[in-house]
Amino acid sequence: MSHAHTVPTDRSSPLGRLARWLQARSFALTPEQIGITEGLRAATAVALMVTLALYLDQPVLSWAAFAAFWACLADPGGPFGVRLRAMGGFALIGTAMAGAVSAVAALGHGWAAAALFVALFICCLSRVYGPAATQVGVLACCVAVVAVGYPMAPLDALRLSGVFLLGSGWAVTLCLVLWRIHPYAPARRAVAAIYSELGDMTAELLALHASGATQDARWKAHAAEHRRAVRDTIERARAAVGRFSAGRGNGRDIRRALLAAIEAGERIFAGLIALGYDLEPHATGTPTDADTLPLRQLRAALTRTSRQVMRSEPDRALVAYEAEVLDRVARPAHDLVGRVAQVCAQALADLTRAWAPPVDDGALATVPEQDETPRRRLTPARALRLALVPSSPIARHALRVALVVTATYAVTAYLDVAYAYWATMAAVVVMQPQAATTWPRTLERVVGSVIGGAAAAFLAVALPTPLALLAAIFPLAAATIALRSVSYSLFVTFLTPLFVLVADLLHPGLNAHGEGIALARAFNNTLGSVIGLAGCLVLWPEREPKGFPHKLAAAVEANMRYATLVVRAGQTPYAEIDAARRAAGLASTAAEVTRQRMVLEGRRRKAHLDEAGAVLETLRRLAGAATVAWLDERTIPGPPDTRRIGYCEAATMRLGALVRGVPTDDSALDREGEPPDDIARAVTHVVQAAKDYARAVEVTRS
C-alpha cells in the first residue's frame, strides 16, 4: 500500500546555489573555507598592536599592526616547517623592504620609482617557487608600495624596520607557538565540502524526482550546475590535500584518511550522475515515500559523513551505521535508485575501513597515493635562472607588474592623491598572469572596495570615539582573515573598513572625518584596479594556454574516451575507467566555465557559443548514459558488445574532426549503424550538436 508523498523541502541551500552560479562565471565562493579560529587569532595579533600604538600615542606603530596582519595572510597552513618558512621569510623580507624603500623614497620621486620598480620585479619572481612563495612575494610587494608613501630619513627608516619586525614577529609567534591550529584543518574543510555538495545534489535530485518533472530546464540546470560544482569541489580538495607531503607518522595517516574520503566521494558522485540521467526521462507520476526513501537516507548519510570528515578523530562507527542503514533500505528497491544507493553505501563502508588505524606498513597501500608522483625538483638557483629567461612567462609577468605599478605610482604622485599607496597596492593584487583571471579579480576588488568604503564611512560616523573604533577593529580583522579563502569580494569588503578605521584611529590629523578616508580608499582602489587590468590587456597579454575551441575539442574527446572504455568494460581495468570519468568531468567543466566567461565578457552575439552550449549539454547526457552503463556493468558484468564498440570508435573519429573544423563524412558511422542503446543514442546527439557547432563556426568566420 503506497503512502501519499510529500514533496521534500530540503533542497540545496541558497548559499550553495549562489556559489555554484558564481563558480560557473569564474568568481570563487567556497563557504566551507570559513576559518573562524584563524580569524580570531589574526584579530588578536592586529588588535594588540593597534592598542599598543594608541596607548603609547605612537602612530608609527600602525606599521606593526599592518605587519601582523600581512604575516597572518602569509600563513599557508599545513605542517610547521612550511608555515615557518613562509611566515618567517615574509617577516624578514618585509622588514628589509620597509626600511630600504622608505629610505630611498626620501631622496625624491625619481629614486622612489626606481626602488619600487626593482623591488616589485624581484618580489614577483617568487612565483617560480610555488603558491606559498607567490603569496609571500605579493605581500612583500604590498610592503614596498606602502613604504614608498612613507619617505623617511635613514635612522627613521631603520626604526620603521624595527616596528615592522615587531609586528610580524609577534604574529609569527602567536600563530606558530602560542595559538596553534591543527595544520590539516583547511584540508579537512575542503574534503568535507565534497559531501556537503553531494548532499545538495541529492536534495535537488529528490525534489525534482518528487515533482514528477520530465525533460524540462530544471533537469538540465541540475546536471550542469551540480556536476560542475561537485567536480570543482573534489579537485579543490585534492589540491588542498596534495599540498602536504605524505610524510610519516600521524601526518601520513591523516593524509591517507582524507584521500580515502575523496575517493569515496568520487564513487558517490558517479552514482548520482547516473541517477540524474536515468530519472529525467522516467520521472512519470509522483513517487511514493518508499520510492524516495533511499535518496532521503543517502542525503542524511552524506550530511553526517561531512561532519565526521571535519573532525580530527571521525566516528567510524557512526558512518558505518549510516552505510548499513542505507544498504538496508536500498536492497528492496530493484530499480536504479536502489542500485545507486547500494553503491553509495559500499563507498561509505569502505571509507570507514580506510579510517581504521593501520596495523602495519602494508595497510597503507590500501589507499592509492595518486598525488605522490615523483618529480625532479629544481634547485632554487636553477629555478630562478629559468625564470629570468626573457621568454619566461614569470619574467614577463614580473616586468609587467613592475612597469604598471610604477606607472600608477607616478600618476598618483603627479596628481598628489591622498593615500596613493592604496591605488598601487590594488594594481599589485589584481594583476594575474592571464587577463582572463585578472578581470574577475578587478571587478571583485572594485565592488568590495565600494561596499567596504561605504561601510567604513558609516562606522567612522557611528563610532566617534577611539575606544569604539578600537572595538570595531577586532571583528573586522577576524572577518577579513576568516573569509580570505571564501571569496575575494568578501575579503576586500571587510579589509577596506579595517584599513580605513586603523588609519582614522592612528592618523586623525590627516583627516578629521573617517568618511573622507573611506572615499579615498574606494576611489584609489578603483583607480589602481583599472590601471592594473589595462596593463594586463596591453603589455604582453597572455591568453589561456588553450582557447575555447581546443577546450571544447578536449571535452568531446575525453567524454568519448570515457564512453568507449565503458562499452569495452570487459577489456578495460576499472581504475582506468574511473580515471577517464574524472578526466571527462574536468574537461567538460573547463569548457563550460570558459564559455560562460566568454558570454559574460560580451561575446554573446557570437552564434557559435549557443551551439557550443548544446554540444556541452549533449556531453553531459553522454556521461550520464555511460555512467549508468558502467554501474550496470559492475553489478551484472556482460561480454563487450562489438557493435557498440565500433560505433563509439567511429563516432570518436568523426567528432574529433568536426570540432577541429576538418571536413569528414559519416560513412564510417553509416557502416557501423546505430545500435539501439542509450550510449549510442547519446553519441548520435553529440554528433548532431557538433555538426551544428561546426556550421555556426563556419558562418561566423565567413
From TrEMBL:
Keyword DNA-binding found: no
Sequence ranges assigned to domain Integral membrane bound transporter in this UniProt record: 409-534
InterPro entries on file: Memb_transporter_dom
Cell membrane listed as a keyword: yes
Alphabetized UniProt keyword annotations: Cell membrane, Membrane, Transmembrane, Transmembrane helix
Compartments where located: Cell membrane
GO cellular component: plasma membrane
Membrane topology: Multi-pass membrane protein
UniProt cross-references to PANTHER family, sorted A to Z: MULTIDRUG RESISTANCE PROTEIN MDTO (PTHR30509:SF9), P-HYDROXYBENZOIC ACID EFFLUX PUMP SUBUNIT-RELATED (PTHR30509)
Protein name: Putative membrane protein YccC
